[in-house]
Structure formats: structure tokens, C-alpha cells
Design a protein that fits this description.
With 148 residues, the chain is α+β, with helices and mostly antiparallel strands. It contains four helices and five strands.
Length: 148
Amino acid sequence: MIKFTLKCDKDHHFESWFQSSDAFDKLKSAGMIVCAECGSTNVSKSLMAPRVRPARTVAPKPNEQDQKPNLTSPASDQEKALADMRKHVEENSDYVGMNFAKEARKIHDGDSPERAIYGEAKPEEAVKLIEDGVPVAPLPFVPKRKTN
């Protein structure tokens, strides 16, 4: 999108947005650009100052109070608690991925060594585990999927 400053033959100035310079030319030749003040279709582009942003290294540093929140670090005590919980779970448990329901059942039945695990399960698998008395709980975060 591009914004042009336009003027009509009666020297009225106005601005309008166009998909491209070619789109402006097509609309002008079709008589579809009209002065908002007088209705004239004799409209042309006016002189415009380009919008050039300074390089990021040249731009002034914002004041500390003007800074936007850092979305990669916790912003509140609750977010910090969730981040700490996630870290604890990931450091002290085995990630079993989509095999969570099968692995939890094997541990519960004694077919696999007892240990803390976390992973992912379909809702119906989780409900079945709970109905069968397998102690499970949903995590308040989505596990990071581990790959090779």
C-alpha cells in the first residue's frame, strides 16, 4: 500500500491510499479518483515527502518508561511462577511426547520403572487414564517438542 498526496485542478489537496502506483494510474484513467471537496476528476499527484525511517542505530534510544514489555521474559509474578514450574518439570521429568498415555499406563501398571514423565495426550486418552485411576494432571503450558 502507498499513500499519495493528491490535488485537483482547483488546487484542493487530499490524501488517499492505493495498492501501487500502477493502481493509481488505472483508477485515474478510469475517472474513478474524485476530489473529496469539489468532485473534480481532474486529479494529479502532488509533491510528497518520502517516509524514510532512520537506521535503527541512529534512532534515539527510548526512555525507560517508554520501553515496551519484553515478551520473552515473564511480565508478572504469575508468569514467573509458570516459567519456574515449566523449568522444574523439564529438568526433573522425562519428556515422552505423544506416547504420554501409553507410558503413564505402563508406569501405573508396573510394566515400566516409576519416574516423573510429561508429554502430550489426546483429550479422550487423558479422560480414560483418569477413569482408570492413573494419576495425571494437565500442565498449564504446552511442552516444547523435543526432536533428535
